[in-house]
Amino acid sequence: MAEKLKIKLSIANRVYPLTIDAHQEEGLRKAAKNIELMIKQFEQSYSVRDKQDVLAMCALQFASQVEQQSIDKTNVNSHIEEKLKNLNELLDSFLVSQRS
User: Fold this and answer.
1) Is residue 90 assigned to a domain?
2) What does pTM read for this prediction?
């Protein structure tokens, strides 16, 4: 059974206690650090009245990155599928010509 860890992450001046699997710790700590960095960037770039607004912008930024990666992956997969289809057709043509 996986070892459980109790950790505390600080995000936007709030501490969040979590119980996690040991293998998740590094990813969660990096994510919290990235959120903190993004909060500082938004606060420096825009006049922000409320942490809620900054956190909403962080969530939007991260969600849009995930969606864009999904879109990019789909486009790459379509491109690869098309190339494989063309290659398969070339191989089929070659094999047919060799039988004749």
Assistant:
1) no
2) 0.67
Classify residue 92: in a domain, yes or no. Answer: no
Our count of domains for the chain comes to 1
Q: Would you call 26 helix, strand, or coil by DSSP?
A: helix
- Partnered with residue 20 across adjacent β-strands are 5
Integer Rg of the chain from CA:
24
**pLDDT tens, residue by residue, 51-69:** 899 999 999 999 999 999 9
Amino acid at 99: R
Q: State which residues form the domain around 11.
A: 4-72
| Residue 62 in tokens | 């991260």
Contact of 48 with 31, CB cutoff 8 Å:
no
Token digits of residue 26:
């590094």
Per-residue pLDDT at 34: 95
